[in-house]
Recover the amino acids of this structure.
């Protein structure tokens, strides 16, 4: 039997959506014969695979690496879901947008509030090149599903996954048939 290839990732966010995903508890075990988690912070896969059926993307798009990864995911994934309010609206991550340039919160965090060694790190490994604005996922790539909530309740996540394992998605016309 072919299993649904599920991926999850988080961009700018707090990992709360992933914690809510784990709150579907026994359902994850019950679905092992129908779902294969092929990429996620909760597994040790380093490279995003090809031919993923569903990817839940948590968090706002905040820097250039997020943009690149979002496009990479979209090319390799049948259905993309904005997973949680940060992905849907940019939510908490978007609060920096009102401050103007991304250097403003960095200056505040790394210089104004610094007790020792004030200065903004200039290593892109430490702080990637921030976008001018933190944006919701759908402003970067086409999104098939929106799963709102901060975080989305486990029951809402469960309903989406079970729906996609069943008859498909009547709203987008996408059909995923498994089991």
């Amino acid at each position: 039997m072919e299993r649904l290839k599920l991926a999850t990732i988080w961009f700018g966010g707090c990992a709360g959506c992933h914690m809510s995903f784990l709150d579907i508890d026994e359902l994850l075990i019950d679905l092992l014969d129908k779902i294969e988690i092929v990429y996620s912070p909760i597994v040790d896969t380093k490279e995003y695979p090809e031919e993923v059926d569903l990817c839940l993307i948590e968090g706002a798009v905040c820097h250039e690496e997020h943009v690149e990864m979002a496009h990479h995911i979209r090319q390799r994934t049948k259905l993309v879901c904005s997973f949680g309010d940060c992905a849907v609206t940019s939510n908490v991550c978007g609060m920096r947008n009102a401050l103007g340039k991304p250097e403003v919160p960095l200056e505040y965090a790394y210089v104004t509030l610094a007790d020792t060694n004030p200065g903004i790190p200039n290593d892109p490994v430490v702080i990637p090149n921030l976008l001018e604005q933190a944006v919701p996922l759908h402003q970067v790539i086409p999104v098939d599903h929106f799963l709102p909530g901060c975080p989305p309740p486990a029951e809402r996540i469960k309903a989406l996954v079970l729906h996609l394992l069943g008859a498909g998605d009547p709203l987008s016309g996408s059909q995923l048939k498994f089991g």
